[in-house]
Amino acid sequence: MNRRLSVVVRCLSAILVALGCVGSLPGAANAVAYAQIEGTGSTWSELIVQQWIADVDANGIKVVYTGGGSSKGRKDFAQGSTDFAISEIPYQGVDEQGNADTSNGRAFAYLPIVAGGTAFTYQLKVGNDLVRNLRLSGETLAKIFTNQITNWDDPAISKDNNGRKFPSLPITPVVRSDGSGTTAQLTTWMDSQYPSIWRPYFGKAGLTSYYPKKPGTRMVSQAGSDQVMNFVSSSYGNGTIGYVEYSYPVNKDYPVVKVLNKAGYYVEPTQYNTAVALTKATFNKDKTQNLSQVYVNPDPRAYPISSYSYMIIPTGANDPRMTTAKRQTLADFLYYSLCAGQTKAGPYGYSPLTLNLVKEGFSQIALLKKADPAVDLTDRDVRSCNNPTFDGKDPNNNKLAQIAPQPAACDKQGAGPCGTATGTNTPSTDGGSGGTGGNGSTGGTGGTGSGDPTTGGGTGTTGGGSGNAPAAIDPVTGEAITPVSSTTGGGEVYADPSTVLSADRPGDKKAFGWLSGFLLIGLVLIPGLYVAALRRRPTGGV
Question: Where in this protein does the record put region Disordered (predicted)?
Answer without folding.
Answer: 420-474
